[in-house]
Amino acid sequence: MANLLSHPAKSLARLAALGLLLATLPGCQNIQTTAGSSASIRFVNASPDKSLPGLDMYQNSIALAYNVGFPYITSPIPLNSGTYTFSADGNGTSQVLISAKQPLAAPHEYTAIIGNIAANLQETVFLDQTTPAPVGDVAIRFIDEATSVGPVDIYLVPSSGKLIATTPVATSVNFGGNTGYINVPTDTYAIAVVPAGAVPLATTQTLYTGAEIAYSGSAVRTYVLVDAAVTTAPAVAVIEGKDYDSPSATN
Predict the structure, then answer these.
(1) In terms of pTM, does the model score above 0.70?
(2) What are the residues whose beta carbons fall under 8 Å from the beta carbon of 41, sequence distance 6 or more?
(3) Quick one: which of 25, 39, 145, 159 has the fewest CB in 10 Å?
(4) Domains (ranges, CATH) in the chain?
């Protein structure tokens, strides 16, 4: 888990600039803000490069999160509307590894993904959907940051079905690809990822098979595909970002 509140190598002046905003960050919990009062941004460390330290995330010169490891997504961090430079430093250093300039507008939420290997590190900022999916549907977006598996096909296998009888929701998704939000009927699904063009059979070895997830009506999710941290063969892992849940949802 990223350490959002303290780090001995950072100056007290930078921490003071965050004021009560960061003092109230609850670790891995979503932050509730008044509708329309602020924008927010969350950070994903999707780089599998073991030579990289954890990442310290900055908004201009103000620290927002410390030691964000791979693979991890932070809580959304509220900010005023404006144009900022969001950068990632090596943990405990002043070395800027990557940065991106991005306007934020209330009440929108954004996701900044730092991905690829160290020599080609990239930062991309995505606008998130924080409004409900259409009635009877859930909206799911996939962003491919897996560097070692090539293009993939992505399936949402319903609890009542099997992979071999399921049609992929996205095909030939390449590294850096963003499927956008895909509306599918509200149901319980397991995510499965296979090499692009592979015909699913009973013996098919998937790159990823997730547990079944029961989605509440109108839920919105982002899934970031990354390289599996521990594996003997190319495989992917998935980072989940919860973009929207109905106030009445219990899952």
Answers:
(1) yes
(2) 59, 64, 76, 77, 79, 86, 102, 104, 109, 110, 111, 112, 125
(3) 159
(4) 12-127 (2.60.40.1120), 137-244 (2.60.40)
